[in-house]
Amino acid sequence: MKMEKAIIVNRITKKYKLYKNTKQRLLDLVSPNNYGEDFYALTSVNFEANHGEVVGFIGINGSGKSTLSNIIAGIVPETSGSVKVNGQVSLIAVAAGLKNDLSGRDNIELKLLMLGFNKDEIKVLEPNIIEFSELEKFIDQPVKSYSSGMRSRLGFAISVNVNPDILIIDEALSVGDKAFAEKSLNKMKEFKRDGKTMIFVSHSISQMKKFCEKILWLEFGMVKEYGTVEKVIPKYENFLKKWQVMKKKEREAYRKAAIENQHKMLNGVEINHKLEIDDFHRRKIKNDYFERPISVLGHIRAGESYIYSSVQDITNGESSNKYKNKVYHVKKQATYNEQLFYLLSNKPSSLHGIIGWMKATDLSVHRHVEVDHDPKLFIVKGTGKAFNMPWGGKKNCLIEKLSLFKGEEFKVNQTDLVGRNVWYKGKLARYQVWIHENHLEKITH
User: Fold this and answer.
1) pLDDT < 50 regions, the chain
2) Cα(143)–Cα(321) distance, rounded to whole angstroms?
């Protein structure tokens, strides 16, 4: 009996490093300093597919559709998160797994050997694959001489004839002639009748409507929507109409706003509303000033950055250097001129202890939640340091060496969550201190 879920994707994130040149790439390998720019192709993606479901992946170019397909197929490893696949997976994409210097026939044999078929089984399957591909006399020519349509036909023919449990079709029907595309769709319909699970990646909305039952809409590596075709496709079509008339500058500003949401997710900050294109047009494109209160923590990133007294005048900023290496309260956020800004304060107040405004790209922010004031009892492990704030930092250090208190009891009277880190407050020596959970061992009775 099959398990209910064919595919379970849980909080998948995929990070790449982008380098300006080879020198940066080499320095990042050998130096303790961080070189290159982090690029997140996927951020905390979740979705599930039942056996027999056909799920379409949609999204504009660069949304992460192919990256997610390759991770599910086991071709690309995820950076974090997990994927559970119950059954044999076959990926169909243009040139996926094909060796350029080998002939079409040799590629068939190699691919089938890699999938675990023996010589006798390959002899049976090979004529069917060649017939389905319609490559005829070209089957013994090197794949590097094939057109993109021919490569796609060969990849499709191999994949459908090995009879997989889960089929992933990544833009494989977007190249080649219409007759073969129709033939391939008919084969996929046959698989659908047989109850196979399929992932269908395509820019063709009409194909999605005909073939899929559910739609996963990805936008800049994040899940925008997941649901039935009837629910998601109309929203996506409405989005496309507005996206297509946006100017280059407007598209870039929308992308930046989406990536800011991405950074919040990565830092554990709650996103209370989705980025909507209508809202973006109203608040971003028109350069309207929009401000709202928030309550998170932030520290200033390395590199050159500035603090401003006003979001609407950033011509005379003060260098942020003297404010670095400390955590601040972030009490407001504002958007203006297609940029996001945060208001920093020394106190949990937007009126008192104000430092000034900074660009969101120059800060790392973390949510701060007071969990409880329940009493707890721990033993000090003897590693790490103790601080006067529940987030550490050089300027907040009260006890440099907890090794001096190894084995002593630590009575906790407050628990806070900062990002994904748990901090405990209690008395040690003559101080009220905060200690990270990694440096304490709970006493259980």
Assistant:
1) 1-2, 270-273, 284-286
2) 57
